[in-house]
Amino acid sequence: MGWKFFQNNEEVSQHLTNLFTQEFPEFEEILLDHIASLVGLMSRVAFADSDFSTSEQDFIKKNLKVFFELDETVINKIIDITKTEYQNFLGIDNQLMTKFFKQHYSAEKRNQLLEFLFTLGAIDSRVDQSESEELRLITQGLDLTPQHFLAARAKVKEHIAALKKN
To answer: Would you say the C-alpha torsion 59, 98, 93, 39 has a positive or negative sign?
Structure first.
């Protein structure tokens, strides 16, 4: 597949390809593919409500450090890319951004990714309609079932309810 999944728009493709190559020249293609795919999905969820809050940014930073063992400089670059390039990612076909995960993740791991994205969407104590719709499309792109979507949504709702009690 190659990490240059931005094939549906030549200008956007060239811009994002150059950006990732310049920002992360030391990374192998598979890691670039992983980061670009994840940044794309996070952008779609984080900006679905037209706001990329500080709490969303902090959540992403914390989890990138845990999942990828990336250093702070790389994490900050990813956040900067997410903030500045989200409109380009919104124009990319969902299937292209989820392709990496379908090829490299088991169904269980894709479900964990969906739960991560639901949690990102709910970091402001709710998942609004636009975020929910984006997550539904991502669920389909990840080849997960509506039951996975409902279970991830229920898990996040439980978490939100627990936070409100405290």
So the answer is: positive
How many domains does the structure of the chain reveal?
A: 1
**Whole-angstrom Cα distance, residue 18 to residue 22?**
6
pLDDT tens-place string over residues 51-68: 888 888 888 888 888 877
CATH number at residue 150: 1.10.3680
Report d(CA 148, CA 138) in Å as an integer.
Answer: 11
**Domain assignment of residue 2, yes or no:** no
Encoded tokens for 32: 């670039």
**Domain annotation covers residue 24:** yes
Q: Which helix (H) or strand (E) holds 31?
A: helix 29-46
CB 75, CB 135: distance < 8 Å? no
pLDDT band of 101, cuts 50, 70, 90: very high
117: nearest Cα among 98, 103, 96, 100: 98
Q: Is 116 domain-assigned?
A: yes
CA–CA distances in Å: residue 64 to residues 7, 15, 70, 88: 26, 24, 7, 21
